[in-house]
Amino acid sequence: MSLAVEVAGLVKYYGKVRVLDGIDLEIPSGTVMGLLGPNGAGKTTTVRIVTTLLRPSSGTVRVAGVDVLKEPARARTRLGLSGQYAAVDANLSGFENLRMVARLYGMTPKRATDRADELLSALGLEHAAGRRAGTYSGGMARRLDLAGALVCRPPVVVLDEPTTGLDPRGRLDMWRVIGELVDDGTTVLLTTQYLEEADLLADRITVIDRGRVIARGSADELKTSIGGDKLTVTLATGQDPTPALQVLSGIGIGEPGVDADQITIVVGDGTRTMVEALRRLDDAGVCVVDAEVHRPSLDDVFLSLTGKPGERKKPEPAPAELQEEILS
């Protein structure tokens, strides 16, 4: 499979602070790469470098076969960027915003008009085409911003926390749009503060912390890497746990843990093992009042890898030293 984005040995200093410390990324064409990490991990710095907005201290970046550092102008024709905040002109209508972007890309007036209409329809904004963008809801403004990133039909789209601040309905709408982009063959680099979003959308996930890649793989691979499913059995109050411990020790992995009337053990195949465990516990005369299987989530992965819970805070701020070192 061809690679749409190739990042190798990416290093970035702000003064004496090493913000990125050898980041490597490979994103196959037509897939979604989720880039996760705690605040200050370097996600936004990486995105700015990939999208030609910032020059790295060292390393290489190729987007759709174009060297970003050597040919930034050419690379921009292959990139679409929707940042953390909707970059739309509040005084222009939705249609006028998109038509302006299309004209800036060099489209003829007619082609710019047609493309604006196409995108407004595709992103469900045709009903608000003539309204000032300043009157749009947060979700509508984010969709308009994404439409602007798609004007030139780029093969690679970078979405930097595209659903931050949206209500549940707006997030669902954005997820639908991202899914349709990938179905059409677009490659997406996605940073997000919502771990369930990465779980749902990303084909592969790269976790970075303190400027370094600390894990990569599919969501399932990352979950498996920190241990199997956990089976928790709740016994009737006051019951001797010894028979249950003997049964579960023969089914699970390692030694079971006991907390009051609950016994927890790691198992290989949660649902199937739970059925077998309940059968054996019944045969052994153990009274079980409840049983559940907990599969590791990306929150568990994130906590295990970084020592921090998944992000629920505002987007990572740009370092004070950042002066938008845009490539020319």
Automatic annotation (TrEMBL):
GO terms for molecular function: ATP binding. It holds the Pfam family DrrA1-3_C. The keyword Glycoprotein does not apply. This is ATP-binding cassette domain-containing protein. Residues 307-328 are annotated as: Disordered. It is a peripheral membrane protein. Its main location: membrane. The keyword Amino-acid biosynthesis does not apply. Keywords: Antibiotic resistance, ATP-binding, Cell membrane, Membrane, Nucleotide-binding, Translocase, Transport. It is found in: Cell membrane. It comes from the Bacteria. Residues 5-235 form the ABC transporter domain. Belongs to the ABC transporter superfamily. Drug exporter-1 (DrugE1) (TC 3.A.1.105) family.
